[in-house]
Amino acid sequence: MQHITAPELAAWLADEARPKPVLLDVRENWEFETCRIDGAVQIPMNTIPARIDDLDEDAEIVCICHHGARSLQVAAFLERNGFGKTVNLTGGIHAWALQVDPAMAKY
Questions:
Q1: Active-site residue among 6, 26, 48, 65?
Q2: How far is CA 55 from CA 30, 60, 78, 80, 93, in A?
Q3: Residue 35 annotated as catalytic
Q4: Can you give the pLDDT of all 107 residues of the chain as single tens digits?
Protein backbone atom coordinates (compact mmCIF):
# COMPACT_ATOMS: atom_id res chain seq x y z
CA MET A 1 0.00 0.00 0.00
CA GLN A 2 1.10 3.51 -0.73
CA HIS A 3 0.35 6.74 1.11
CA ILE A 4 -0.38 10.11 -0.46
CA THR A 5 -0.77 13.59 0.98
CA ALA A 6 -3.62 15.90 0.08
CA PRO A 7 -1.40 18.21 -2.04
CA GLU A 8 0.06 15.19 -3.86
CA LEU A 9 -3.45 13.88 -4.61
CA ALA A 10 -4.53 17.33 -5.83
CA ALA A 11 -1.55 17.40 -8.21
CA TRP A 12 -2.40 13.89 -9.45
CA LEU A 13 -6.01 14.85 -10.12
CA ALA A 14 -4.91 18.01 -11.95
CA ASP A 15 -2.43 16.13 -14.16
CA GLU A 16 -4.27 15.56 -17.45
CA ALA A 17 -1.54 13.16 -18.62
CA ARG A 18 -2.06 10.78 -15.71
CA PRO A 19 -5.05 8.42 -15.45
CA LYS A 20 -7.41 9.38 -12.63
CA PRO A 21 -7.67 7.05 -9.64
CA VAL A 22 -10.88 5.77 -8.11
CA LEU A 23 -11.53 8.03 -5.13
CA LEU A 24 -13.08 5.61 -2.64
CA ASP A 25 -14.66 7.52 0.23
CA VAL A 26 -15.34 5.11 3.10
CA ARG A 27 -17.06 7.61 5.41
CA GLU A 28 -20.68 7.41 6.56
CA ASN A 29 -23.51 9.06 4.61
CA TRP A 30 -23.75 12.16 6.82
CA GLU A 31 -19.99 12.72 6.52
CA PHE A 32 -20.06 12.34 2.73
CA GLU A 33 -23.00 14.76 2.52
CA THR A 34 -21.09 17.30 4.65
CA CYS A 35 -18.08 17.45 2.32
CA ARG A 36 -16.38 15.38 -0.36
CA ILE A 37 -13.80 15.51 -3.11
CA ASP A 38 -15.46 15.88 -6.51
CA GLY A 39 -15.74 12.56 -8.28
CA ALA A 40 -15.45 10.44 -5.14
CA VAL A 41 -17.44 7.22 -4.88
CA GLN A 42 -18.87 6.50 -1.44
CA ILE A 43 -18.91 3.00 0.01
CA PRO A 44 -19.06 3.17 3.82
CA MET A 45 -16.32 1.18 5.54
CA ASN A 46 -18.67 -1.37 7.11
CA THR A 47 -20.14 -2.26 3.69
CA ILE A 48 -16.81 -2.79 1.88
CA PRO A 49 -16.67 -6.59 2.41
CA ALA A 50 -20.16 -7.03 0.93
CA ARG A 51 -19.45 -4.64 -1.94
CA ILE A 52 -15.88 -5.61 -2.80
CA ASP A 53 -17.05 -6.92 -6.18
CA ASP A 54 -18.18 -3.37 -7.05
CA LEU A 55 -14.49 -2.38 -7.20
CA ASP A 56 -11.97 -3.08 -9.97
CA GLU A 57 -8.98 -4.85 -8.42
CA ASP A 58 -6.75 -3.54 -11.24
CA ALA A 59 -7.68 0.12 -10.69
CA GLU A 60 -5.64 2.60 -8.70
CA ILE A 61 -7.82 3.23 -5.65
CA VAL A 62 -7.27 6.11 -3.25
CA CYS A 63 -9.07 5.41 0.03
CA ILE A 64 -10.44 8.45 1.86
CA CYS A 65 -11.99 8.97 5.29
CA HIS A 66 -12.07 11.80 7.85
CA HIS A 67 -8.51 11.64 9.24
CA GLY A 68 -6.97 8.61 7.49
CA ALA A 69 -7.45 5.76 9.99
CA ARG A 70 -10.54 4.07 8.51
CA SER A 71 -9.22 4.49 4.98
CA LEU A 72 -5.94 2.90 6.07
CA GLN A 73 -7.86 -0.14 7.33
CA VAL A 74 -9.88 -0.36 4.10
CA ALA A 75 -6.76 -0.02 1.93
CA ALA A 76 -5.10 -2.83 3.92
CA PHE A 77 -8.25 -4.98 3.58
CA LEU A 78 -8.33 -4.41 -0.19
CA GLU A 79 -4.63 -5.22 -0.45
CA ARG A 80 -5.17 -8.51 1.43
CA ASN A 81 -7.94 -9.32 -1.04
CA GLY A 82 -5.90 -8.94 -4.22
CA PHE A 83 -6.06 -5.22 -4.91
CA GLY A 84 -2.52 -4.26 -5.88
CA LYS A 85 -2.83 -0.50 -6.30
CA THR A 86 -4.26 0.82 -3.06
CA VAL A 87 -3.35 4.23 -1.73
CA ASN A 88 -4.32 5.84 1.58
CA LEU A 89 -4.96 9.59 1.79
CA THR A 90 -2.87 10.62 4.79
CA GLY A 91 -4.86 12.93 7.03
CA GLY A 92 -8.07 12.23 5.13
CA ILE A 93 -10.65 14.75 4.00
CA HIS A 94 -9.65 16.97 6.92
CA ALA A 95 -6.16 17.38 5.46
CA TRP A 96 -7.72 18.05 2.04
CA ALA A 97 -9.85 20.83 3.54
CA LEU A 98 -6.86 22.37 5.34
CA GLN A 99 -4.24 22.02 2.60
CA VAL A 100 -6.10 22.00 -0.72
CA ASP A 101 -9.63 23.40 -0.40
CA PRO A 102 -9.96 25.83 2.53
CA ALA A 103 -13.57 26.59 1.50
CA MET A 104 -14.59 22.98 2.15
CA ALA A 105 -16.79 22.35 5.18
CA LYS A 106 -14.96 20.86 8.14
CA TYR A 107 -16.37 18.75 10.95
A1: 65
A2: 22, 10, 10, 14, 21
A3: no
A4: 999 999 999 999 999 999 999 999 999 999 999 999 999 999 999 999 999 999 999 999 999 999 999 999 999 999 999 999 999 999 999 999 999 999 999 99
